[in-house]
């Protein structure tokens, strides 16, 4: 199935509605330099075809920042973190130094400790953006002129825990903040199949991806929170949960009555789904 754009989301955001919530799926740092990837083309067309309304700031929940307690980065300017090896040299020359969003980070902390009831939320005053944040953002917003705050996940917790985190962050919708969960619809690096052409998923991955899509589009968020018990091939699709938890935060921020829509789908290496979703709250 080819990639799709969500016209309804664009119209809503142009009207300055409260529905600035997304889950984007990515897997490879090479997205930043490989023009053959369909997902790269989708992200590059973002401001033109998907979301023309420029957000005031961005809160991005990245699967690649996994901490014991929720943590936000509160920095004046984001550095570009490279903690991967063996990629082409141009990868290490890329920079995405968007302004920090200190005020937003402190607001996130206040919401999580207030409405979220969390006893501890940390601030990191040195950490920049990992590739779960800067790879998609440099394609979506290449000017790097929008303040960005990053929030960590806790892989020791559950989907419901992250959904509750998102619910606490719901007030951010009304302040021009774009909330992005950045993870992956499927994430099992041990099952990558380099012999399969891009766009050809293996059956177990496709089954999980379709279950996730149908659950979201039908508003069965409770099932998604309990994905380990409800989904087919759950442990095959996600041996570890951190790449799915950004989705739960986005779902929670959108609200129980939010409408989900798939805004992109494509495949890489047989098992990597780039299925991405928007969440539109009822007005």
Automatic annotation (TrEMBL):
Give the superkingdom in one word.
Answer: Eukaryota
Start and end residues of each Extradiol ring-cleavage dioxygenase class III enzyme subunit B domain: 39-279
Q: Per the record's keyword annotation, is Disulfide bond included, yes or no? A: no
Q: Which Pfam families match?
A: LigB
Give the record's keywords alphabetically: Metal-binding, Oxidoreductase, Zinc
Co-factor(s): Zn(2+)
Q: Which InterPro entries match?
A: Extradiol_dOase_DODA, Xdiol_dOase_suB
Give the protein family.
Answer: Belongs to the DODA-type extradiol aromatic ring-opening dioxygenase family.
**Mind telling me what this protein is named?**
Extradiol ring-cleavage dioxygenase class III enzyme subunit B domain-containing protein
Which species is listed as the source?
Brassica napus (Rape)
């Amino acid at each position: 199935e080819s990639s799709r754009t969500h016209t309804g989301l664009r119209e809503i955001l142009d009207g300055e509605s409260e529905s600035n919530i997304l889950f984007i799926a990515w897997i490879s740092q090479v997205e930043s330099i490989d023009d053959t990837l369909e997902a790269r083309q989708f992200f590059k067309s973002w401001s033109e075809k998907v979301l023309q309304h420029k957000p005031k700031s961005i809160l991005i929940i990245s699967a690649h920042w996994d901490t014991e307690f929720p943590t936000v980065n509160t920095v004046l300017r984001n550095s570009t973190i490279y903690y991967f090896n063996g990629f082409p040299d141009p990868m290490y020359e890329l920079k995405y130094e968007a302004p920090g969003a200190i005020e937003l980070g402190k607001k996130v902390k206040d919401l999580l400790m207030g409405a979220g009831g969390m006893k501890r939320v940390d601030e990191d005053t040195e950490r920049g953006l990992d590739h779960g944040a800067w790879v998609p953002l440099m394609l979506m917003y290449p000017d790097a002129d929008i303040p960005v705050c990053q929030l960590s996940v806790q892989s020791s917790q559950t989907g419901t825990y992250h959904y509750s985190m998102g619910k606490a962050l719901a007030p951010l919708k009304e302040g021009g903040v774009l909330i992005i969960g950045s993870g992956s619809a499927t994430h099992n690096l041990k099952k990558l199949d380099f012999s399969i052409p891009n766009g050809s998923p293996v059956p177990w991955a496709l089954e999980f991806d379709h279950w996730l899509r149908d659950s979201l589009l039908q508003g069965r968020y409770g099932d998604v929170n309990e994905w380990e018990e409800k989904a087919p091939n759950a442990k095959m699709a996600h041996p570890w949960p951190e790449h799915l938890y950004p989705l739960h935060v986005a779902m929670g921020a959108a609200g129980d009555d939010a409408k989900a829509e798939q805004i992109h789908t494509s495949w890489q290496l047989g098992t990597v789904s780039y299925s991405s979703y928007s969440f539109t709250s009822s007005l």
